[in-house]
Design a protein that fits this description.
The complex is a heterotrimer of chains A (101), B (519) and C (672). Chain B is mostly helical and 519 residues long. In chain B, 73% of the residues lie in helices and 4% in strands. In chain B, strands 1-2 form a two-stranded antiparallel sheet. Chain B has a two-stranded antiparallel ribbon with strand order 3-4. A three-stranded antiparallel beta sheet of chain C has the order 1-2-3. In chain C, a hairpin with a 2-residue loop joins strand 2 and strand 3. In chain C, helix 4 packs antiparallel against helix 11, helix 6 runs antiparallel to helix 7 and helix 19 packs across helix 23. Classes of the chains: A mainly alpha (101), B mainly alpha (519), C mainly alpha (672). At the A-C interface, helix 1 of A face helix 27 of C.
């Protein structure tokens, strides 16, 4: 089995994620886009692991780590978004310029 | 007292007391005054004990001193001691300080503020006493400069508040401000150069600041040539400003006129002596060769000072300014004596210094008190003082007589002996210059008599002016009399029995002259 | 502490004199006592019943008795001793005070003692009710003490001290009524004139002391009579300088101007100081230093002689034109002092001192008499007197005795002393000076007779009713007139020459002419001129009409004007010396001080502060500080621009990030 289709799928997924981050105004959608990017990385990890026939399964272990961290990250991210929404009554990311100069 | 304990107490007790006074609350006026008086009296007492322990048979040697390492990196030591030259001046300083404090009991320039005045007097006393006992150039310099500050503050804070115009300045300026700044800057200008001279001596003289060691070096001919003449020139600047010698005297009339009474008393009585003392203690013995070279110039400047001061007095309408200018003349006699470089002349200078301290101090006491009573120093408005304030007038008359060099009173010896010295200066000096200076000095005595008698006529004699008749004027009170009478008595005592001074100075001066000039 | 110097040990030859014993040893008492008394009078005088006068009187009476005892001892046994107290050493010089007990000083003690006693008694009454009565006696006592300091002095130093002290007492007493400006000015004039002369004395003393290496008079005299080389070189100078000092005190031309003005003081003062004692100090000095003058400085004596003669004639002439009785006497005193100085100058030591001695008594008498008159008529002007002989008989008769004594008629005192001076001048061959002195005698007789006639004869021209003075004033007059008669008998050539013996204690040093008998030429001319003067004045002021018209008869306008203006000396002094010094020079110096020196100092100050300003604004603020500030403001400006990138919008950041990644990737792909 060739690795290329897998890599192409991962790249597509990554690009869709980037697009989502840059374009979507809703903070939840941005978080979802981040998940897409992370998953495209996971696909890459698993694909390369299979191709290299790694006996230690490093790629798969990494992808499991990433899934765990992504879950934690989305939890925190959603909490922040939730708090911001409560204070500002909007989830529009352009309104959130607290870090401005 | 081998450890120099006595002298150390004399120098630092006033300073310690001044610090102590800072700790007393301002409200406790009486306590402040008593502590000040107590410490000044104690200082005077210790200085008397020192005088008793002093070995008058070896008055030429430095005695009762000590030498403790101070700033070892530049080999500067806490070296003190006295000989017959410094002893009378030290006693004069401690004594006049006591009188100044007694006078201040009831005559503070700013009532209710005893703290400031008293502590300044005490700091001043430390500076004066220290200068007279210091035998290390750096130590000398420190004390020499220390006296500037209290005097600056006295003039600047409690001085004459009137506004006057000053030639060369566009705007009118407050008298005290002008006078205090002029005093400070003028003196500092001189002493900055002096310090340069000290450093020069240090580097050429085996890296020592010790005056006795430098004298040994100097008399053995270690300092010669251009170097020596430069050093003498800068020392001359430093000391001549303080004396003050013509034409460096112009700070004096302003400072005296503006200063509060006690300030001008201490200024005239002690501070001016620091300069002439510096000549005798440092400039002459360390640089004898240059002293010989400079002597004619000093003599001429002194003679000019005598005539100039007296003539300027004749033109004054301000009582205190007149007395201030008379100091220029009198210190001219002192410097004329010193410039002769003979034992007679320098002895004359010594007794002249003491006598001037007593007499002019008293004159400033009296004139300051009168200025306070009348609220004016303008002699055109005064007159009939003998009738209005008989006690003050009598003392003023007596002091004026003493000041014009009346034989039988202290002022005579300094004048007469200075002329005697100037007639026959050290062999090798230009006799024509010195004899001309002597004649000028002698003419100066006539002018001195002239302006003092004229002053008496305008201030003391005649009928009182009408503006005073319905005013309630207070004659000298007890504090004033207690401060003044001792000076009157001293004037007579020294006048009748000059041995009181010569007994101490003569051997020391002879030793100095024979060591430095071999004569 | 006290050193004795028995003079006979110095004067080679067999001892003729004793050391004076206890009496000489305690002579210091009469010198010190007046000073103590003066202090006591100052502080306690007011509380005493006679306001301090009793202390003064007691003191001078003690001086009188002590000096009388000394004089008796000296006249019988002879005393020559001196005592020294060291009061300090300076260089190799000993400063010594002390007292001399020899003929010359004893004579002066006696004169001072006698005249003071009488004047003090007189003054207790004369000054009654005047202001500062107590202080008057303080000063008078102080004067007696100072005069004794002067005449008892064994060193030139003490002499100078006494010399100036009497000057101060004179200042105090002339200016006794200092409420009026004329009086205090007269006092000042006296002091300053004397001070000018004192400069001469002072320098003279310095010159002599330095060349002889001593201040002791006896040592200087010894050296000057024993041909010491050092003093010889300066002898002429020293002699002239000492004489300048003497000119001041003894009112010699042209320094006599203070004495007539000094009459502003109360009359007893004029009698004691400005006639009998203080003004003779100069003559005393010449007498004391006479061996020096004769031994070394005989050329200086010529100058002394010249000035003496000028003075005796010039002052005598001025006395003729005075209307103020006291001024007549004052100029007369100047003139008589001229006689004494003339005598000294001509080498007649004894004659000069003898005239001092007699003059002290009769001039004091005349002054006290004048005082008595003035006390009665309350004016000094003779034009407001006249006819007082009836009202004041005792004053009149004693005044007449004084006048005759002064005019030099025998057997009164003035005759003998003046005759001796004339005889010496004649003997020394000073013909011109002899003639002038004889002329002076004529003038003396003339102005005294004029004064007597204007005062006592004719009709009273003043206000009120004058009456004779109190006994306390007339008794001293009577006693003094006794002295005015007998004082001259102390030295009658060929009969009794005790006075010569008294004063020539140091005769080994003195060479002088002692007439064995009367010099007939001198006696005749002196006597004739005296009589002529009296006669002429009597004719002009009495016989030929009213006394007040007398002046008109002898008036030669230009000369009279010259004399009335006192030879324009005062004018000259004020115009050319005092005013220039006091006004021109003094103002110049003062303006020099404030406009040149001060301006310079202030200029330095302002220049420094200007320079400071320049340095501050341009270098400090405009230079260094600017750079520093620029660095901070620059950062600030840039930062404020750059910060705009930070919008806080995460997506923009990511956009930048992505662009960055793409650019870097392209660079890596394409360039590398």
């Amino acid at each position: 089995m060739s690795i290329q289709p897998l890599l192409i799928a991962a790249a597509a997924l990554f690009s869709i994620g980037i697009y989502g981050i840059l374009v979507r105004r809703n903070a939840v959608m941005v978080l979802l886009s981040i998940e897409l990017i992370l998953n495209s990385v996971n696909i890459n990890f698993v694909a390369f692991n299979a191709m290299l026939s790694d006996v230690f399964l490093n790629g798969q272990i990494f992808s499991i780590f990433i899934i765990t961290i992504a879950a934690a990250e989305v939890g925190i991210g959603l909490a922040i978004v939730l708090m911001l929404f409560r204070n500002r009554e909007t989830a529009n990311i352009n309104e959130f310029d607290l870090m401005k100069w | 007292m081998e450890s120099g304990l006595g002298l150390t107490i004399v120098v630092f007790l006033p300073l310690v007391s001044a610090i102590f006074i800072f700790l007393i609350p301002k409200k406790q006026e009486m306590l402040i005054k008593l502590v000040t008086l107590g410490s000044a009296l104690l200082t005077f007492g210790v200085s008397l004990i020192v005088a008793l322990q002093f070995d008058f048979n070896n008055a030429g040697d430095l005695q009762l001193g000590t030498k403790v390492s101070w700033i070892s990196s530049i080999n500067s030591n806490y070296e003190i001691g006295i000989d017959g030259i410094s002893l009378p001046l030290l006693l004069l300083s401690t004594f006049i300080s006591v009188l100044a404090i007694i006078y201040s009991f009831e005559h503070l320039p700013e009532p209710k503020n005893a703290k400031g005045m008293m502590s300044l007097i005490l700091i001043l006393e430390t500076g004066m006493n220290g200068t007279f006992v210091a035998l290390d150039l750096i130590l000398f310099f420190v004390f020499f400069e220390l006296v500037l500050l209290p005097m600056y503050f006295m003039i600047g804070i409690w001085g004459d508040k009137t506004v006057r115009s000053v030639s060369g300045l566009k705007n009118d300026i407050e008298t005290r401000l002008y006078a205090s700044i002029k005093f400070f800057v003028f003196t500092l200008f001189g002493s900055a150069f002096m310090l340069l001279g000290f450093l020069g001596l240090y580097f050429r003289g085996n890296r020592t600041f010790s005056i006795p060691e430098l004298i040994e070096l100097g008399s053995s001919g270690a300092f010669t040539g251009t170097f020596a003449s430069l050093v003498f020139a800068v020392l001359f600047l430093g000391f001549a400003v303080k004396v003050p010698m013509w034409p460096l005297h112009t700070w004096l009339p302003d400072a005296h006129t503006a200063a509060p009474t006690v300030g001008s008393v201490l200024l005239a009585a002690i501070l001016l002596k620091l300069g002439s003392y510096g000549f005798v203690r440092i400039a002459l013995p360390i640089l004898p060769e240059q002293a010989v070279a400079w002597a004619p110039a000093i003599a001429v400047l002194s003679a000019i000072g005598i005539i100039y001061g007296s003539l300027a007095c004749l033109a004054q309408t301000d009582l205190k300014r007149l007395i201030a200018f008379s100091s220029v003349g009198h210190m001219g006699f002192v410097m004329l004596g010193i410039s002769s470089l003979t034992s007679i002349g320098i002895n004359a200078a010594m007794i002249g210094m003491v006598a001037h301290g007593i007499i002019t101090g008293l004159l400033f006491f009296v004139s300051g008190s009168m200025a306070h009573t009348y609220h004016t120093r303008d002699m055109g408005r005064l007159g009939g003082n003998m009738k209005l304030l008989p006690k003050t007038g009598a003392i003023l008359a007596f002091t004026a007589m003493a000041s014009l060099g009346l034989p039988g009173l202290a002022g005579f010896w300094g004048e007469f002996m200075a002329l005697l010295g100037a007639y026959n200066p050290l062999p090798g000096l230009n006799i024509t210059i010195f004899r001309s200076s002597m004649v000028a000095g002698a003419i100066g005595t006539v002018l001195t008599a002239g302006y003092l008698l004229w002053m008496l006529q305008r201030v003391n004699l005649g009928e009182p002016k009408e503006e005073w008749l319905d005013k309630e004027l207070h004659d000298a009170d007890n504090y004033e009399l207690v401060a003044w009478i001792p000076l009157v008595i001293l004037t007579v005592l020294i006048g009748v029995f000059p041995k009181l001074i010569f007994g101490a100075t003569n051997d020391a001066v002879i030793a100095l002259v024979s060591k430095a000039f071999g004569g | 502490m006290v050193n004795q110097n028995f003079i006979n040990l110095l004067a080679e030859g067999k001892p003729e004199y004793t050391d004076g014993g206890v009496l000489a040893e305690f002579t210091w008492l009469i010198v010190v006592l007046p000073f103590l008394a003066a202090i006591l009078i100052t502080f306690f005088g007011k509380y005493l019943p006679l306001q301090g006068a009793e202390l003064a009187l007691g003191t001078v009476l003690f001086i009188f008795s002590y000096s009388a005892a000394l004089l008796y001892e000296h006249a019988t046994k002879g005393i020559a001793n001196e005592f020294f107290i060291n009061v300090g050493s300076i260089g190799s010089y000993d400063l010594e005070f002390g007292w001399v007990v020899d003929g010359l000083s004893i004579m002066m003690y006696f004169v001072v003692g006698t005249v003071s006693s009488l004047v003090f008694i007189y003054a207790t009454n004369y000054m009654q009710g005047e202001i500062r009565y107590t202080f008057f006696f303080t000063s008078l006592t102080l004067f007696a003490g100072s005069m004794l300091v002067l005449v008892s002095s064994p060193t030139l130093l003490q002499l100078l001290i006494g010399w100036e002290l009497v000057g101060v007492c004179s200042y105090l007493l002339i200016g006794h009524y200092w409420e009026k400006k004329e009086n205090s000015s007269a006092a000042m004039k006296a002091f300053i004139t004397n001070k000018i002369a004192d400069v001469g004395l002072m320098i003279g003393i310095i010159v002599l002391a330095l060349s002889t290496k001593t201040l002791r008079i006896s040592e200087i005299l010894y050296q000057s009579t024993h041909d010491y080389a050092d003093i010889k070189t300066v002898a002429y100078l020293g002699g002239v300088l000492l004489f300048i000092g003497a000119m001041g005190k003894s009112a010699q031309f042209p320094l006599h101007v203070w004495l007539p003005d000094a009459m502003a003081g109360p009359t007893p003062v004029s009698a004691l100081m400005h006639a009998a004692t203080m003004v003779t100090a100069g003559v005393y000095l010449l007498g004391r230093m006479f061996p020096f003058y004769q031994g070394m400085a005989s050329q200086a004596l010529d100058i002394v002689l010249l000035f003496g003669v000028i003075t005796l004639l010039g002052a005598g002439l001025v006395a003729v034109v005075q209307d103020d009785l006291k001024k007549v006497l004052a100029y007369s005193t100047v003139s008589q002092l001229g006689y004494m100085v003339t005598a000294m100058g001509s080498g007649a030591y004894t004659a000069g001192l003898f005239h001092l001695w007699t003059h002290a008594f009769f001039k004091a008498l005349l002054f006290l008499g004048a005082g008595s008159v003035i006390h009665a008529v309350h004016t000094n002007n003779m034009s407001e007197m006249g006819g007082l002989r009836k009202e004041m008989p005792r004053t009149f008769s004693t005044f007449i005795i004084g006048t005759i004594a002064l005019a030099g008629l025998p057997p009164l005192a003035g005759f003998f002393s003046k005759d001796e001076i004339l005889a010496s001048l004649n003997h020394e061959g000073h013909n011109l000076y002899f003639i002038i002195s004889v002329l002076g005698a004529f003038i003396t007789a003339f102005y005294m007779t004029r004064a007597v006639l204007l005062t006592f004869f004719g009709d009273y021209r003043g206000d009120g009713h004058p009456h004779e003075s109190d006994k306390m004033m007339t008794i001293p007059l009577i006693i003094l007139s006794g002295f005015a008669i007998v004082a001259g008998w102390a030295n009658i050539p060929g009969v009794y020459t005790g006075f010569t013996k008294w004063v020539t204690t140091r005769k080994n040093y003195i060479v002088e002419y002692h007439p064995e008998s009367f010099d007939l030429v001198a006696m005749f001319s002196g006597l004739t001129s005296g009589l002529l003067g009296i006669g002429l004045a009597y004719y002009v002021y009495h016989m030929s009409g009213n006394a007040t018209d007398g002046d008109e008869k002898i008036k030669i306008k230009p000369i009279w004007n010259l004399l009335e203006n006192k030879y324009y000396l005062d004018f000259f002094y004020f115009k050319f010396i005092i005013d220039p010094v006091k006004i021109t020079f003094a103002k110049f110096v003062d303006s020099f001080n404030s406009n040149v020196l001060d301006r310079f100092v202030n200029g330095v100050g302002t220049t420094a502060s200007k320079a400071g300003g320049i340095v501050y604004t341009n270098l400090d603020q405009g230079g260094i500080d600017k750079v520093l500030n620029l660095s901070s403001t620059g950062t600030d400006t840039i930062g404020s621009k750059v910060k705009l990138i930070q919008t806080g919008k995460t997506q923009q950041y990511l956009m930048y990030f992505l662009i960055g990644v793409i650019v870097i990737s392209l660079i890596i792909l394409l360039v590398l």
